[in-house]
Amino acid sequence: MVTPGGPPSVSFRENGQLRELQARLIVGADGRASRVRGWANFAVTRDPDRLTIAGALVEAEHIPDDGVHSVGGPTGRVLIAPQGKNRARMYFMWPTTSASRHLSGGSHESESLAACRATGAPAEWFEQATVVGPLAKFNAADHWVNHPARDGVVLLGDAASASDPCFGCGLSLTLLGVRQLRDCLLASEDWDAAIDQYAREHDDSYGVVRRITNWLTELLYGAGHAADERRARVLPRLATEPQRAPDVVGLGPASPSDDATRRFVLGEDDA
User: Fold this and answer.
1) Quick one: which of 19, 46, 48, 105 is 20 to 30 A from 141 by CA?
2) Pairing mode of beta strands 153-155, 26-28
3) Which strands make up the sheet holding 149-150, listed edge to edge?
4) Which residues pair with 138 in a beta bridge?
5) CA 207, CA 268: separation in Å to the nearest integer?
6) Helix crossing, 191-221 with 225-240: angle to 10°?
7) Is-above-0.85 flag for pTM?
8) How is the beta sheet containing 143-144 ordered, strand by strand?
9) Domain locations in the chain as residue ranges
């Protein structure tokens, strides 16, 4: 386990013996269910449950491999990322409250493919398609730590901020966090000040991504007549005015996320 302090320490068993090592800095990069986060008593904030995602590696020779494909509507959307050699990562995403789907495990593979096909993706893409990797589903709600650094312990990646996997920003945020922490440590001999600076930069970067993905969730998966009408107005504009749209995948935290962008995404600037 990890114990924060000056200095922080790690205790573990080796050959049946309990050992403890002290370090100048301990980095927890152990994922969405981080144990380091709990040992160091970081408080976790969580968004309400909104989307669920299920994914698997699929073998399908008829899926075009010239790009990533996203098809669907507010009740469900499929994202297909070709991997080469007639294989693709296939993800089905749907509002958590709209339907109870058990798309996890080998017994639900055909049901998962059927859900992806029902989004309106070309039927021929699924001809002779088979799931060849583990099928699993996850609650996609964001959860995060505000200021993920204290007493010689720093959190990185999903341990610090698990973004909604429906938008595919998690690995990029992790790599950005590594660079931010590196740069802060190299810039100062005072590592307490350095990790404090890292935590501020992390909060700013993750905050932009969460803000944008919240808008896109509302736009793409909102239910009801008003939400349908908004999609009919906004989606064509996103295609014809890409310079005004946030690019959370390509630009990430560098993407615009001000109030003007929010109003454009949610169709409030022409309502």
Assistant:
1) 105
2) parallel
3) 26-28, 153-155, 149-150
4) 53
5) 22
6) 110
7) yes
8) 45-46, 143-144, 161-162
9) 51-139
